[in-house]
Each structure stands twice: as structure tokens, then as C-alpha cells.
Amino acid sequence: xxxxxxxxxxxxxxxxxxxxxxxxxxxxxxxxxxxxxxxxxxxxxxxxxxxxxxxxxxxxxxxxxxxxxxxxxxxxxxxxxxxxxxxxxxxxxxxxxxxxxxxxxxxxxxxxxxxxxxxxxxxxxxxxxxxxxxxxxxxxxxxxxxxxxxxxxxxxxxxxxxxxxxxxxxxxxxxxxxxxxxxxxxxxxxxxxxxxxxxxxxxxxxxxxxxxxxxxxxxxxxxxxxx
Length: 227
Known about the structure:
By secondary structure, the chain is α/β, with parallel strands linked by helices. The protein folds into two domains: 166 residues, Vaccinia Virus protein VP39 (Rossmann fold); 54 residues, Single Sheet (N-terminal domain of TfIIb), CATH 2.20.25. It is built from six helices and eleven strands. The strands form two sheets. The protein has a seven-stranded mixed sheet with strand order 3-2-1-4-5-11-10. It has a four-stranded antiparallel sheet with strand order 6-7-8-9. It is globular and about 60 Å long.
């Protein structure tokens, strides 16, 4: 099991449903300004945002590096693959990367990712993503939490230092009156806005700081493909 698959198995215990729905609403309202027919959802998770856009008449494809997430998308009849964005075929009117996707990459990986994004956009294509602010990492994400139900017990321990958030997930699953332990660490990286300026393939046209958890914890980034 990869660390992203472990995250997928624990997501329902993290209490992020309300924040996820708020992000979906924000992205959907931003995309309303553009007349898009096709959309690529990078880090699509279980496909919730694709379902919303499909209901608006947009043809959607999702990709995610978690096979657990992709299997759930496919079970709902969604077009989804467990592949890297560089391996996606075709181009799209819009691409989105929702809920910290960019923060899971260090700077070198991020630059390569953004280059791949620009190559998958149609002319005048739009790319929207959100990142954690410094407050989002130090005031919201850092710390320890636990959650449980009849069959699972989860402990999350996150520490932010040197612009990196190291989050250890420890999950105990009950199976035949025994508990199976799964444990792994996910690293997220803080990125300054200047990282997204002067990109070769994308032009940053707007940025908006907003709150999911009663503080300025997120920044929405909107890019257009450079001509």
C-alpha cells in the first residue's frame, strides 16, 4: 500500500467533507466564467468534482496516483486512470488540481508538473489549483488528531519545519477481532507565490487568498496557457 493509498483509506475519518464541498463550489464558480467543454481533474480522488462538472455538461477525465481512488471512480462509471499527468493523452479546455495537490511536490517536481500541465491545455486553456499558505501549514495542518469508528482507529501526527509538513498516518483496522496496523508518512511542501511567476508555459492571471478553517489558510491560483 502506497502512502497515497493509505490516505485514501483514512480520508473518511479526517472530517474534511465540508472543506472539500466548499472547494468544489469555489472551483465550479470560477469555471463558470469560461466556456469549457472538456476538463481534466488531476488528483481527482473519488470523483466528486467530476460528477458536478458532468452534470453541467462538461466532458471530464480524472487521474490520481492512488489506485484506491481510481477504482472507486471507475465503480461509479467515471473516466479515470492511475497515471501521471505527463502520460495523459489529448488536451483539455480546463485542468484542475484540487485540495493541496501542488503541495505534494517539491520544487523540482512541481516545475516538471506545471510544464506537463501546459502541454495538456488547449489554446487559451485554463488551469486552476489551490495551495496551502504558511498559516495553513503552521496553524491548521500541524498537530495531532485521532478518530475512530467500530472497525478503525486513526492517529495523525503532523509537524511543520523548514517549509515541509511531515504527516504520519497510523491506521488500525479490525479484522477477525485482531487489529492490522498500517503506517506511513506523507510530505507536503510550502510554495511561495513567486514560484508560480514567470513560468514558461503558464501565466498566473489571478490569485485569491481564502479561508477553509477560519484563517487565511489557502490560496487559489488561476493560470492561462501562454501563447
